[in-house]
Amino acid sequence: MMMEEELRKLMSMALDGHADSYHLFLQRASMPLRAYLRRRLNAIPDEVEDLLQETLLAIHAKRHTYRRDELLTPWLYAIARYKMIDFLRRRSQHEALNDPLDEETEWLEASEDAVSDSKKDLGKMLETLPENQRLSIQHTKLDGLSVAEAAAMTGMSVSAIKVGVHRGMKALAKMWKEQA
Fold first, then answer.
1. Mean pLDDT to the nearest integer, 133-150
2. RNA polymerase sigma-70 region domain spans which residues (predicted)?
3. Measuring CA to CA, which residue among 88, 18, 25 is closest to residue 60?
């Protein structure tokens, strides 16, 4: 929660016109955003840095939309997520143009159906968990956030996130065994 508080304070000061605070805000926000992007992308470091710069530019352009009474880190991560999606779309469009067409489409469709079914099953099981366990697992295991980032995003303590993940994973394992 310390990162959240520091970033919110710097952003508020920056929105009030303090240029030094804004510069420091961008520096401090870069570290967790870089880690967030790196964890989610199988990209070369230059691509991560390019995407980080795009994200920081978007934050700059949209800073007037930030509501001071709300948490800042979810707002930052949402912008980073949208920039990452745009990046992945551009990359896949470029790669799709270079992919040869062949007979593998049937195999891929069957594989995609199985993945889709597994995601639906997992989603149903997650819905049965208490909110603290579900959110802890969603943010750390599925979204790839660190425990500290998940705690900042949810307002829960780091310990509560760890306990939520442990208990939730235990409950999911039990549900999985019962279905098998």
1. 85
2. 33-92
3. 25
Best CATH choice for the domain 119-180 from the list 3.30.930.10, 1.10.10.10, 1.25.40.10, 3.60.20.10 = 1.10.10.10
Helix (H, G, I), strand (E, B) or coil at 16: coil
Give the DSSP H/E element, type plus range, for residue 10: helix 2-15
Query: What's at 31, amino acid-wise?
Result: M
Q: Is the pTM of this model over 0.70?
A: no
pLDDT for residue 17: 92
User: How far is it, in rounded angstroms, from Cα 41 to Cα 44?
Assistant: 9
pLDDT of 24 higher than 80: yes
The H or E element that residue 109 is part of is: helix 105-127
Q: What's 65's DSSP letter?
A: G
Note whether 3 and 32 are within 8 A (CB): yes
CB 59 within 8 A of CB 77: no
Half-sphere exposure of 18 toward its Cβ, with a 13 Å CA cutoff? 13
Topology annotation, domain 1-98: Rna Polymerase Sigma Factor; Chain: A (1.10.1740)
